[in-house]
Structure formats: structure tokens, C-alpha cells
């Protein structure tokens, strides 16, 4: 569409001024909105009597919009590419950490098993040693009791033999004394 309109003469239209005033009041009532940093377009200054080429203005506006859109698309895809790279790096770190953690747990479990095996072995060794020590102590006690009783029994038997032999000598002396002279037997006793 190629619309060529004559330039608008500067006339004062009261309805137009009222509409503009109401729009300004409504704009003041609205909350201010954050705006993107887009350069403001100013209306082209035209001298009176020139024709305005709306197709040219539309084309320039479309080119500008297309450039902004392409820039936004490129920025979006660059940002998405960076985020995907960060996501891949994060996944790799997570997998690496999981593998390290699994290895640490495996090593810890092996060490724990070795420690428990050493403790069981040490406990068994101590039990065997304690059993051997108790057996040795029992054997010593038995030997001491046997040696002591055999020494004492030997002493008793020796003493008993002496007593018996003395009794026998006394008995024979008494018998001889009664029947014979006691002076000869006194010498034997002493």
C-alpha cells in the first residue's frame, strides 16, 4: 500500500486537544512501567506540502524490528547455549562426585572389614593365649600340690618309718628287759 498523503496543516482542533489531555491524565494515573532500552522514534519533520511515503516508513520500521528481533533471538540462543554448557558441566561434576563418593565408601568398607578381621583375629589370639596361660597356671598349681604332697608324704613316710623302727627297737628292748638284763640294751637305744 502506497499511501501518499499531504502533510497535515497545523490547525487547532478542540476535540483532538481534549483527547490528548484525557490521554495524558490517564497516563499520569497509571503506574510507571519499566521500559526496555529502545531508542525513541521521533516523528520525521516534514515541511508543509510534501507527501509522506508510508511504505518507506513501514519498511524502515519493519527492518528495525527485524534487527531487534534477530538480536534478541541471537542473545537468547547464546544464553541457552551457555546454560546448556553449564548444565552439562554440572552433570559431569555430579557424576564425578558420585563416582568419587562410591570409591570412598568402597575403600572405607574395605578398611572397616580389615579392621574387624584384625579385631577378631586379635580377640581369638588373646583367647588362645588366655586359655594357654590358664592351663599353665593350673598345671603349676597341680605340680606344686603334687610336689608338696609328695615331699610331705615322703617326709611323713620317712618319719613314720623312723617311728616304727624306734617302736620296734623299743619293743624288743622292753621284751629283753623283762626277760633279761636291761643294761645291755640301754646302749643300743642311745
TrEMBL record:
GO terms for cellular component: troponin complex. Residues 73-141 form a coiled coil. One of its GO terms (biological process) is sarcomere organization. Residues 24-44 are annotated as: Disordered. The keyword Coiled coil applies. It comes from the Eukaryota. Signal peptide: none annotated. GO terms for molecular function: tropomyosin binding. Keywords: Coiled coil. Pfam families: Troponin (PF00992). The keyword Coiled coil applies. InterPro entries: TNNT, Troponin. Troponin T is the tropomyosin-binding subunit of troponin, the thin filament regulatory complex which confers calcium-sensitivity to striated muscle actomyosin ATPase activity. This is Troponin T. The lineage of its organism: Eukaryota, Metazoa, Chordata, Craniata, Vertebrata.
Amino acid at each position: 500500500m502506497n499511501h501518499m498523503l499531504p502533510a497535515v496543516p497545523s490547525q487547532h482542533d478542540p476535540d483532538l486537544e481534549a483527547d490528548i489531555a484525557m490521554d495524558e491524565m490517564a497516563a499520569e494515573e497509571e503506574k510507571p512501567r519499566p521500559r526496555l532500552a529502545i531508542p525513541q522514534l521521533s516523528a520525521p519533520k516534514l515541511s508543509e506540502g510534501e507527501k509522506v511515503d508510508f511504505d518507506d516508513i513501514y519498511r524502515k520500521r519493519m527492518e528495525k524490528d527485524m534487527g531487534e528481533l534477530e538480536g534478541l533471538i541471537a542473545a537468547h540462543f547464546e544464553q541457552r547455549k551457555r546454560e546448556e554448557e553449564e548444565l552439562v558441566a554440572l552433570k559431569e561434576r555430579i557424576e564425578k562426585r558420585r563416582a568419587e563418593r562410591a570409591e570412598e565408601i568402597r575403600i572405607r568398607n574395605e578398611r572397616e572389614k580389615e579392621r574387624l578381621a584384625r579385631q577378631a583375629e586379635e580377640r581369638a589370639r588373646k583367647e588362645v593365649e588366655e586359655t594357654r596361660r590358664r592351663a599353665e597356671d593350673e598345671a603349676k598349681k597341680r605340680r606344686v600340690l603334687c610336689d608338696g604332697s609328695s615331699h610331705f608324704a615322703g617326709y611323713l613316710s620317712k618319719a613314720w618309718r623312723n617311728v616304727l623302727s624306734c617302736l620296734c627297737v623299743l619293743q624288743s628292748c622292753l621284751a629283753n628287759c623283762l626277760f633279761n638284763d636291761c643294761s645291755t640294751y640301754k646302749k643300743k637305744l642311745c
